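Board notes (copied after class):
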Amino acid sequence: MLRKVKNVIKLLKSVDFEQLEKISKKVDLPEVLGAVSKMDEGQLKMAMKMLTGGNKKRTPPPINADFYDVSAKLSETDRALQMRVRSFLESEVKPIVNKYWLHDEFPFEIIPKLAELNVCGYTYQGYGCAGGSSLMDGIIASEFGRIDPSIATFLGVQSGLAMGSIYLCGSDAQKQEWLPAMQKLEKIGAFGLTEPLVGSGTAGGLTTTCRREGDHWVLNGQKKWIGNSTFSDMTVIWARDLEDHQVKGFIVRKENPGFSVEKIKGKMALRIVQNGLITLKDCRVPESDRLVHANTFKDTAKVLQMTRAGVAWMAVGCARGAYENALAYTQEREQFGKPIASFQLIQNHLVEMLSNLTAMQTLVFRLSELQDEDKLKDEHASLAKVFCTMRTRDIVSRAREVMGGNGILLEYNVARFLADAEAIYSYEGTKEINSLIVGRSITGFSAFV
C-alpha cells in the first residue's frame, strides 16, 4: 500500500493540472481512463504512437527513382557521362527554367555550355560526333527530360530530327557542311514535317508541294509547330513532288527567298521551345540542298523511327522529374504533426507512380538495346512512345495531386511537368497513329485510312 501511495504522489507531481483541466472540458476523463485501462500493451503503444506522431525524427532514405537499378548495367564510362550530364542540368538549367518557361522565352546563354557536353549527335559516326550507343543517347534524353522537357525537346530537334535527316538522307557534301557545325551547336537546325491541317497522318496527306525548275526547286505550303524554327539557321522541309507525288526532303536556309517564320504564341506546354508557323511562298531551293537520299516517305520514316525512341526516353525523364519532386515534397510537408509521406493514401499514389516509372524505364532500356542490335522496328518504337507518354500523364497527374494546391505553382517544379507532358503525349505521332502502327504489326491488317 505504501508503494502504491508513493507512486500516486509521484504521478501527481508530474501532472499538469492546468492542461488536465483544459482536456476535461473537451472529453470525459473517467471514460477515457476506463478505456485506456482496458488496453493491452500493444494497443497502448499504438495509441501513444498515434498521439505523439512517433516523436522520433526520421531521416528519409535517399530518393531513388531508378528502383530496379537499370543504370547498373552501364559501363563506368557511360555512368560517368550520365552523372556529368545530370550535374550540368542541375547546376546550369534547373535554376533558370521556371523563369524562361513562364515568359515563353529560350535561354540562349546555355547553348555554348551545352555544346561543351559534347552529346549532340551522340550516336553518329564521324563529323565530330561521339559514335556512342543508342542506349546512352536515350539515357541522355531522359536526363534532360528529368530537369526540363523543353530543353530536352530542343536537343531532340537539333540532334535527332535535323541532324538525323542529314545524316541518314544527305549527300557527303551536305553532311560535311552541316553536321560538324550542328554538333558543336554553332548552327541550329529545325525539322518541318507537321502542317496546319496535317499532323501525324503526313504519310498520305502532306499538302506542302515542290516542283523542279532547272537547277532549283520551288516549294509552297505551310509547316506548323516547328521547334527551333524562329532562330534556326536551316530547316529540313518535307514536301510532296507535284510530278511523281513522292515525298522529298530539302535543306531550307533561313535566308532562302520565300521562306518566313511566325512564332506561335499562347502555348500551355513546352513554353521554352520556340515553335514556329513556317510559310513557304514560291521558296526557291537549289538542287544542291535537296536531300539526295530522301525520295519517298519511307526515308522520312527512318528518321522518325530513330527519334521516336528518343521521345519515349524523354517521357521517362519527364515522369521521373515529377516523381522525384513530388516524393521530396511529401517527405518535407507536414500535416497533423508528421510528414504527409507517412499517410497511407499518399504512399499509395507514390507507389503507383514508381510502378509506372519502373515499367517505363525497363521498356525503353530494352528498346534501345534492340536499336543497338539493329533490330528496332517501327512497331517497337511506336509501342514505347504510346505506353511511356500515357503513363507519364498519369504520373505527373498524381505528382500534382499529392502536392495539393502547391502542385500548380511553378516554384514546386511539378506544374511544368504536368503541362509539358501533354505536348510529349501528342508530338512525334499521336497515341492513335502509333497504336495503329502496332496494331498493324500484331494483326496483319492495316486500319489506316
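Comment from the instructor: DSSP finds 15 helices and nine strands in the chain. The first helix runs from residue 2 to 14.
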